[in-house]
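The pair is quoted verbatim below.
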Amino acid sequence: MGKKSGPDGQMNSKSISAGFSHTCAIEADDTAKCWGYDYGGQTSGPNGQANIKVISAGVQQTCAIKMDNTLECWGNHISANVPDGLDNVKSVSAGEVHTCAIKADDTVQCWGENSYGQSTVPAGLIDIKSIASGSKHTCAVSNNGTPYCWGYWKYKRIPTGLGSVKSISVGNTDSCAVKMDQTVECWGSNSMGVSNVPSGLNNVESLALDQYQACALRADDSVQCWGTNYSDVLNVPAELQ
C-alpha cells in the first residue's frame, strides 16, 4: 500500500478536498497536488497537472475539472472511468464507489458502482446547481433550492417539511442541509451522531461531512463540529471557534 507524504511547509492553495484516506489541493498556479494513501491510484494522477479549477477526492478515485471544462479522473476503480462523451462539466463530486457530475445544461450524470441505486439519476432531474456523492446515496439541489436524494432508501429519505435549501452535504450514511434561514437539518442512520445537530447552530454558510462527524462554517468564519470524536476530529482549534 503506497503512501505519499504531505506537502513540506505551508502550501499556497486555492481550494482543498479531503477524501477517505487522501487529500488533494489546487495550488495558486492552478496545478494539483495530492497526498495520502495511494492503494487505488487516487493520488497518482494529478501532481503537477496544470489548469485545474475544481478537484474532488473520493475513496479510490479523484476527479478534476480543467479550465476548458473537461473532466479527468484517476484511480483504480470504475468510479474513475469518465463516461465517453462527458465534457463541458460544471461540477463534480467523487463518492465512495461512484462519481457524479453536473453538465453544462444543469443535468446530472453518475457512474461507478450502482448496487444501491446511487448512480441512477432520477428521470427528469434538471436545473441542478450542486451535487454531493456519498457512500450509498447521492443528493442534489436545484437552482430554486429543491433538494433531491437517491440511492439506499434509509439514507435518501428527505425529511418531511424540509422545504427549499441552500446546499446539501453527504457523508457515509448521513446527509445535512443548510436551510434558507442558515440553520441545519440532518438525516440518515445517525450511527455516529452525525445527524444530532447541536442546539442553537445558526448562521451556517457551508458544511462538510464524513463517516464520523460533521462540521459547519458560520458566517463569522468560526467552525463547529459534532458527531463521534474519532482521532480527535471534534476538537476544533481555538482560533477557529
